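Q: Hi! New to this. If I give you a protein sequence and the SMILES for flavin-adenine dinucleotide, can you show me the bound structure?
A: Yes, paste them in.
Q: Okay, here:
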Amino acid sequence: MIVIGAGPAGAAAAMRAAGSGITVTAFEKGAPGRDKVCGDGLTPRAVAALDELGVSLDDAHRIAGLRMIAGQRVRELDWPANGQFGPFGAVWPRRRLDSALCDGAAASGAELCFGTEALPILEDGRAVGVTAGGERWTADLVVLAAGAQGQAARMLGALRDPDEPFGLAIRTYAETPRHAEEYLEACLTLRDPDGTAVPGYGWLFPAGDGTVNIGVGALSTMKGFAKLNLNRLCDSYRDLVADSWQLGPYLERPRAWRLPMSAVRRHGPGWVAIGDAAGLINPMNGEGIDYGLETGILAADLFAADPTAVPDTYDRLVAERFDAFLRTGRRFSFLIGHPRILRTGLRLAVGTDAIARLTLQVMGNLIDNETPGTAGRVLNVADAALAAVSPALRRLHRRRTTRARGTASPNSA
Ligand SMILES: Cc1cc2nc3c(=O)[nH]c(=O)nc-3n(C[C@H](O)[C@H](O)[C@H](O)COP(=O)(O)OP(=O)(O)OC[C@H]3O[C@@H](n4cnc5c(N)ncnc54)[C@H](O)[C@@H]3O)c2cc1C
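A: Thanks. Here is the predicted structure of the protein with flavin-adenine dinucleotide bound:
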């Protein structure tokens, strides 16, 4: 098996496959210990996936829940307790998380080639291997784990669906005496400099090492998205929280990256796409690490069971596990692209502790499939309602985007 990219998705696939005795080579174009622009937040769902891989979380900072802030309203919520996921999440700076995963893959017997770009070789429409470091490498399965879609994805036709939303986010680090707090903080009522409500949030994720990860993210369904200046949004969020967190100056220049939330294809003869390469980011909270880990594990397990049937079975199982939820999330993102709806929705979502808890559970995809309970019912009702209004919202969004064209967009993804 060949893996293109050794972020969480690729490293998880390599670790799991090598652990089952499969010969795996993973190519990573970055150097060992490369960093990835990220909020570093792990939900209990991601912690469960790390557990399944046998990765110790000793090096991560443990997180008990989320502090949601909407205007003057503050709700501190513990992660929902259910049978499927444990009661804690974590913040684990990506340089260290990704190194731990790569070390785990190497310890399981995978070969990792850093500083090496790999591009798929297609023969008669089938991926048969990659070219990497000037050489040809062949394998029964090529796993595309190259993150937000780039050249390797273009070659396989695994591109973002232009009719679906995506996200953009920016982050940096700052020192704070509150670095050891056990709650993530998310401000849901961000506004751009023109005063437009931003569908997205500003975050402070304490890393437990003297620093906090600070950033902001927005969905492409936002009114005026093409003109959105993430650096300015990040600075204004920093001004808002600087005193209460006693923040030091930025420790590095804020850096932005894309959050892919769709892919027109995630499998084909001889290949599958996992993680961001498959557009698997939760539109409701921007989480992608877990989906990368889970799909990496799934692809490896299927390959271990039957190397010939992987792509079709993989696509079907990913659909069963994630598609309905992520489709609801994408529909939701068109809805909250309307400032007035966003404001009203937020008032409702954090209106009481009980509703805020449900919001956290639904938006974090932390519903126990065995006993979905109230959160499961809320999700079903929301999906049905969103399905009914979705075509109209998409039409509105398309009209708005067409009108905005002509203004050069720095945000095309
Ligand atoms: C600002 C920001 C904040 C975020 N915050 C969070 C968060 O708090 N929690 C969360 O769960 N998610 C968050 N996300 C999303 C998360 O970062 C991604 O979902 C996650 O990194 C996906 O993992 P991956 O392995 O699929 O891709 P990546 O982590 O992007 O890894 C892909 C790897 O492939 C390598 N690569 C690419 N092309 C090639 C090639 N041709 N050959 C060899 N190597 C290649 C790249 O160098 C890279 O190392 C955030 C994203 C952004 C932008």
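A: Residues 2-63+92-162+260-322 form a domain with the FAD/NAD(P)-binding domain fold (CATH 3.50.50.60). Let me know if you'd like me to explain how to read the tokens.
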